[in-house]
UniProtKB/TrEMBL annotation:
Belongs to the SCO1/2 family. Disulfide bonds join C84-C88. InterPro entries: SCO1/SenC (IPR003782), Thioredoxin-like_sf (IPR036249), Thioredoxin_domain (IPR013766). Pfam families: SCO1-SenC (PF02630). GO terms for molecular function: metal ion binding. Residues 20-210 form the Thioredoxin domain. This is Protein SCO1/2.
Length: 217
């Protein structure tokens, strides 16, 4: 009987150790290619993942900012316009939960790209930010060239945006919050109008924060 009890205890301990050592990892989205690299004098096959390309726009303070300012940071990107009568108010209200959770975290940012550069000038974006209660540099509202923003949305962040006179506000866009890691890779996409998915985003940001830095090559 003692031997049986001992075996049960060992099985339980092994199971507990196995559970504690299992860490959640997030998938990596986008295109990927196999590449051969030389590491420590040996040929190894590795995977190159699609990353967000270089961009440079202007934020609500009139500062020129872009991908260079996001190096080594986790961030969430979305696409909106200030006069949006449909999903944007819900999205930005939900994004405030993300902002309030991480606004004091130095290696995290939120980047909201306007898809209506004609109307959403720097003063308009600043007024919009003030109404939301955004301050500091944790959340940038970005103004850029229309074609550059639209291409960035579709090809890099995998979000569909377009001008559409048949919909309210004159623009169509998906309401995704896109999670980007410190290596500029897409790690998740969440419905910004669904608070359950936004809460999942918050949890996934915390998971990324514990992810080890890639090994130097």
């Amino acid at each position: 009987m003692r031997n049986l009890t001992g075996i049960i205890v060992l099985v339980l301990l092994f199971g507990a150790c196995k559970t504690n050592n299992t860490k959640k990892t997030l998938p990596i989205y986008g295109q990927r290619t196999a590449v051969t690299k030389t590491v420590n004098g040996q040929q190894v096959t590795d995977t190159d993942y699609q990353t967000i390309p270089v961009f440079k726009f202007v934020n609500q303070y009139g500062d020129s900012t872009g991908s260079k300012d996001l190096e080594g940071k986790i961030y969430v990107a979305d696409f909106f316009f200030t006069s949006c009568p449909s999903i944007c108010p819900i999205m930005q209200r939900n994004m405030l939960n993300v902002y309030n959770e991480f606004k004091s975290t130095p290696d995290f940012k939120i980047i909201s790209f306007t898809i209506d550069p004609k109307h959403d000038t720097v003063p308009v974006l600043k007024s919009y930010a003030d109404k939301l209660g955004i301050s500091g540099n944790s959340w940038w509202l970005m103004l850029g060239n229309r074609d550059s923003v639209y291409n960035l949305a579709a090809k890099s962040y995998l979000v569909a945006v377009s001008e559409d006179s048949t919909v309210a506000g004159g623009y169509m866009h998906q309401g995704y919050f896109v999670l980007i890691d410190k290596q500029k890779r897409v790690r998740g996409s969440y419905d910004g109008t669904d608070m359950k998915q936004v809460n999942q985003l918050i949890d996934d940001i915390k998971t990324l924060q514990t992810e080890p830095a890639p090994a130097a090559q």
